[in-house]
Specification:
Blueprint (H helix, E strand, L loop, with lengths): L4 E3 L4 H10 L4 E4 L3 H8 L7 E4 L9 E3 L5 E3 L5 H6 L1 H4 L2
Parallel strand pairs: 1-3, 2-3
Antiparallel strand pairs: 4-5
Length: 89
């Protein structure tokens, strides 16, 4: 696996600021499966990994304004499968 610098910001603003430093060689980490496979195979020129899992508000399921659903980017598929309101829709 190639070497990289790991960051675990606690705000969305901090994550975006880290990405702006070197967007071509930085990647966001959410689940990680695809990213780590690519790093292991050395197919990516990644120097920086920015972990999003420590940022509040990026996961969860709920109803937004009107009838729109809000599904956070870090929401596990199992949460969607088990959500009572989604099960009967």
């Amino acid at each position: 696996m190639q070497n990289f610098t790991y960051h675990a910001p606690t705000s969305l603003a901090a994550a975006v600021a880290l990405m702006r430093v070197d967007p071509e060689h930085s990647r966001y980490l959410a689940g990680g499966t695809d990213l780590f496979l690519e790093l292991e195979r050395r197919r990516l020129g990644v120097n920086t990994v920015i972990d999003l899992k420590h940022i509040p508000g990026l996961s969860g399921v709920g109803v937004g304004p009107g009838t729109a659903w809000r599904i956070g980017a870090l929401t596990p598929m199992t949460d969607l499968e088990r959500h009572p309101d989604l099960q009967h829709r």
